[in-house]
Amino acid sequence: MDHETESELAEKYAHRFGQIATDLGFVTSDQVRKALDEQISNTLSARLRPRKLIGEILFENGWMTLKQIETVLAELFK
Predict the structure, then answer these.
(1) Closest CA to 43 of 32, 54, 33
(2) From residue 57, how far is each of 15, 28, 39, 78 by CA, in Å?
(3) What tens digit of pLDDT does each residue of 62-78 get?
(4) Residues 7-60: pLDDT tens digits?
(5) DSSP string, 29-77
């Protein structure tokens, strides 16, 4: 996946991903908000690196498991 595509996906689906993850009880709205803030901060500070996906940030912080991310993605792309 090229950087532009990852960035477009991140922008298009980050809020929806967070909403589904919250609705399923995997994370809190505060954790999603912090992850979105981190996503924006990373984008502004490191223009050479593509934007991290919201699921990646939630996983790196230990707030979601890979299985939970897969579940959210399955719901997101139904």
Answers:
(1) 54
(2) 13, 14, 7, 23
(3) 999 999 999 999 999 98
(4) 676 677 888 999 999 999 999 999 999 999 988 887 666 665 667 889 999 999
(5) HHHHHHHHHHHHHHHHH-TTSPPPPHHHHHHHTTSS-HHHHHHHHHHHT
Burial class of 45 by CB neighbour count within 10 A (0 to 12, 13 to 18, 19+): exposed
What are the residues whose beta carbons fall under 8 Å from the beta carbon of 59, sequence distance 6 or more?
A: 65, 66, 69
Predicted TM-score (pTM) of this structure: 0.79
